[in-house]
Design goal:
Number of strands of chain A: 23
Strand order of the largest sheet of chain A: 6-9-10-22-21-20-17-11
Largest sheet of chain A: 8 strands, mixed
Oligomer: homodimer
Radius of gyration of chain A: 30 Å
Structural class of chain A: alpha+beta
Helix content of chain A: 25-40%
Number of helices of chain A: 17
Largest interface: A-B, 121 and 121 residues
Chain lengths: 596, 596
């Protein structure tokens, strides 16, 4: 190697851009070594940076020094090199690579930093234990798939900001050290040193602050905000997550929903190039539950729930007849051309729906001429069978599934069964992105454990004006001015028109069993703010991690978060959370009573 | 009022845009009432929204109902109205207002929400106790000045993002729940419920994560990141603050500094319309201290420090002569044409510099023919007086100030005196924005209390290659590859080229007296990450609150933060921090030992 260091030169190109038009150029590349192959006296290395891969060749005829040093190069060595672009010999080109027509003959190079053998292979990816990936996240992120996910997330955020900026929104930062209001999920607390015995809470969302900004006359606010919930991490949750949070003054439902449709269409287009067809269809909560069993319906396929209570009321099948007589609900879904399901499949599905409270799963396979094949067939007259077939549009090769129970169980279990069938039969394959709105949610739901009504969204959601009187007399009937945005069966956003009148807010707190005193203590500042000319306002938050994961085609949000936590809310890389020095606790006036 | 609600109509205009070209148009406005004046049977109200103010007129001849209802309107009532734009009568126009040529004659209106009398006036602003402003921040933010600050901040953030996006940077979100590394400032801790006795820490900066992203091959990262430091809030600090955080791979100092200059020029242009002249001048740390006494010099004016140790060594003035003999430093600044300072002024200045360790402040007023007027004049021969005059370019009307002590005290006290003189004589008035870079900071400084060397920036800052050997032999002489960006005498940014080689990182930890064991425990994951081909990298963080405050011409960063904390780290609006439920602490396994 000569006196002049390659690293002192300007990098001229990325590893993802050189082509035949560059043949003959002198270039400076920097990146990481992938495969090294020694072949015919030459050493071939695939050099990777974030933009792509370029094959570089160390030839002893070009530079003896460079060639012999190249023998030491191993996977993930960080390298700078200078060389000349050459066309690859015939038969050696790689049409799968942008740079596959060329290679760089190295004149000079430096190893900027060597690497130990990585704990897992970055190329020819095979599934690696996720804990290992997270512990060595800095290696995991070097994989092009992971970089693509970060890039997609970046583009999605940039698109959101651009669109909202263009629509008159102000990005405003709200506090992270805020007040604990143990309503909803569990807060993460932050002990105060200046006021020992007092605590801040990390925000579960900027909800109150964005409402205060509307009261402050900002009119249109947004923030891509980190939020925190100290929940048990079932499923695919993270203790900290990100939402695109927005709020608007002087609006009604349609204003927020129209704006949001433009927002997601722009995000999808700029992040993935796909067109979202607008307007996004809307259905009420009642319709979603009735047709799909769930409030976040996957509308990419049929398999809708159909009520048959009236038909089965006359059947000899006791379970259904009794259910109908007791005023319970009997519904069915038609698994179109799914009759090939085996006995074992059906047993699996029965146990699957049991998780959602179903006490069993009656099924009927449809044979030629609509004949039923089923353990329960004998309890149904041929006329009744035909009537049910007709209502469900059942033909040979179909399979019917029945649920009979209280409505909540029937809807939940058949709704989940519907998704499980779609998964097994790949009904969503290549279906792309399908959005829908669900509107007119119930204002409250009854918490059986605590024997009280709870806000279904949050206690700042406005009830419909015409339902105000029901708040005290029949709260379960009150509809909220709330709306959820659903993408491919996942809730990716939710919002509402908020309460802006102090008397209505007080009524809602009362309906939720929050005493005046408690309301004052927790939300006194909000109630007071409402008395100073608060404007009508509403907004929405998009679950950004989930949205990006769906756009990236990733099953888990952890794949689109640079440094996620495990299901135990720990970070295998930094080993957070960890013990701290006794002096730190002393300053906070705290003692650990119980430790793992 | 008619059956149709005004609020159901679309708002057609903001309160800041109607002009003579709109005369005759039907418009719908929404906003807040300011002054109400009853005059000649008409009621005049200034309606304000975030865009401006429009005068609206309730005329009983137009709508009897609207007019009588208008009597109830008070300050800060939130109102929707429909009306017709009319030219104001001659003599009634207001040239100070965009909309000052017109008024809106109201056909119909609604009070969307009444308001109690605000605790302070929003118009004709008089200084209000800041605690009251913060308690009613939602009213304070309605003032056009505050909205302008939020808008400026929004524009600055948007400009930063646009520029960085265009320069190949990825916005990546790093964790808030991370590991406590009690290096530098005090961490805010977050107790873990899943692992009782363990704690997360809120990040003091995303420093380690951005370095890990470079090791992960991201190459160019940025984030407008909230950071947290549990420090005593002297001066103008906040427990949570925002920085524009960026990091780049395969770079040296010039790359980061050039990029940053483009960044701040874009921010300044888009937020304020001002042009920053590039390149930003650079000076070394040693030069900054020598000429200005401080490492964040205000270079908008002269009053530089000049050494006179050699000259005063021969004076009869014991203090100076002894100082010179002991190898201490004697410096002076020339207060050009400031000799009119009174005895009281000089006493004040003497007590001012005493705060920075100066044991006194010798001064000399220059009379005709360069004659000295000063208590110490008699200890200096006329020749010596002339020699000093000459070196300091002193002429009649000037006043010289001297400092004689260890260099640190001389520089700090004269450096501060320099700023105080500039403040008193308004030397910076209308001087605009002046940036400069300070480079080649010392790697370490000696902590007298703890008798050990400490990192001046942070322990991941790279020493200069040529100084590596001094790390063990003479650490105080090692220069770091660090640079600060200074704007009008305030540090608004700082960064460095980082260490990317594990052996160098280990050497630096050793020089800082961090044992191998301690380094492993705190930064083991970083040391390990360096062994897997970490690329050379460096970056910078801009103090976004301070930068925006300077651009807004605000003395305090609290004026550019929507919901700031007080000096006691509390929020007068939400009353955070606050007591929490015993059950919350029980779940965390914590007990409060000491409470306020």
């Amino acid at each position: 190697m000569s006196e002049q260091f390659v690293y002192d030169l300007k990098r001229t190109h990325s590893c993802g851009e050189l082509g035949l038009e560059d043949v003959g150029s002198q270039v400076v590349l920097m990146g990481w070594a992938m495969r090294r192959r020694d072949h015919g006296g030459l050493i071939f290395v695939d050099l990777r940076d974030r933009e792509g891969i370029t094959q570089v060749v160390f030839n002893p005829e070009v530079d003896e020094g460079a060639h012999s040093g190249a023998h030491t190069i191993r996977s993930e060595f960080c390298i700078a090199l200078k060389g000349t672009v050459r066309e690859r010999p015939e038969g050696m080109t790689n049409p799968n690579l942008v740079t596959g027509g060329i290679e760089v003959y190295v004149d000079q190079f430096e190893i900027l930093n060597p690497s130990k053998t990585p704990p897992f292979m970055l190329e020819e990816w095979i599934e690696v234990n996720e804990n290992i990936r997270l512990k060595y996240r800095y290696l995991d992120l070097r994989r092009p798939e992971m970089y693509a996910n970060l890039m997609l997330r970046h583009k999605a955020a940039a698109a959101a900001r651009r669109y909202l900026n263009e629509n008159g929104f102000l990005e405003v930062e709200t506090p992270f050290l805020t007040k604990s209001t143990p309503e909803g999920a569990r807060d993460y607390l932050v002990p105060s040193r200046v006021s020992p015995g007092s605590f801040y809470a990390l925000p579960q969302s900027p909800q109150l602050f964005k409402q205060l900004l509307m009261m402050g006359g900002v009119e249109r606010y947004y923030q891509i905000a980190r939020c925190f919930r100290d929940e048990d991490l079932r499923a695919d949750r993270q203790p900290e997550f990100t939402q695109v949070d927005l709020e608007m003054s002087f609006v009604a439902e349609d204003d927020v929903m129209d704006l949001t449709e433009g927002l997601v269409a722009n995000i999808v287009m700029e992040a993935t190039g796909q067109q979202v067809s607008l307007p996004v269809p809307r259905m009420t909560y009642d319709e979603a539950i009735s047709r799909y069993g769930l409030d976040a319906p996957d509308v990419r396929f049929g398999l809708e729930l159909t009520e048959v209570t009236d038909l089965v009321a006359g059947a000899e099948f006791k379970l259904f007849a009794t259910a109908a007589a007791k005023g319970l609900l009997v519904k069915a879904i038609n698994g179109k051309q799914m009759a090939a399901l085996s006995r074992k499949d059906l047993d699996d599905l029965t146990s699957y729906v049991a998780d959602f409270g179903a006490k069993g799963l009656a099924w009927v396979k449809i044979k030629p001429q609509g004949e039923w094949q089923s353990p329960i067939a004998k309890f149904f007259t041929p006329e009744l069978q035909q009537a049910i077939n007709q209502r469900l549009d059942a033909v040979e090769g179909d399979i019917l599934f029945f649920g009979a129970d209280v409505p909540a169980v029937v809807h939940e279990s058949l709704g989940r069964l519907r998704l499980e069938l779609a998964r097994r039969f790949e009904l969503n394959k290549d279906k792309g992105l399908t959005f829908c709105w669900v509107t007119e949610f119930p204002m409250v739901e009854y918490n059986q454990d605590e024997k009280r009504w709870e806000a279904m969204h949050h206690p700042f959601t406005s009830p419909r004006q015409e339902d105000l009187e029901l708040l005290t007399s029949d709260p379960g009937k009150v509809k909220a001015r709330a709306y959820d945005l659903v993408l491919n069966g996942s809730e990716v956003g939710g919002g509402s028109i908020r309460i802006h009148r102090p008397d209505v807010q007080a009524q809602v707190f009362a309906a939720l069993g929050i005493s005046d005193e408690e309301a004052q203590e927790k939300f006194g500042f909000l109630l007071e703010a409402l008395t100073y000319g608060a404007p009508p306002h509403g907004g929405l938050a998009l679950g950004f991690d989930r949205l990006v994961a769906i756009l990236a085609g990733e099953p888990s949000i952890r794949e689109v978060i640079a440094f996620p936590k495990t299901q135990k809310a720990s970070c295998p890389l930094t080993e957070a959370p960890s013990r701290v020095a006794a002096s730190q606790l002393l300053e906070l006036g705290l003692r650990v009573e119980k430790a793992d």
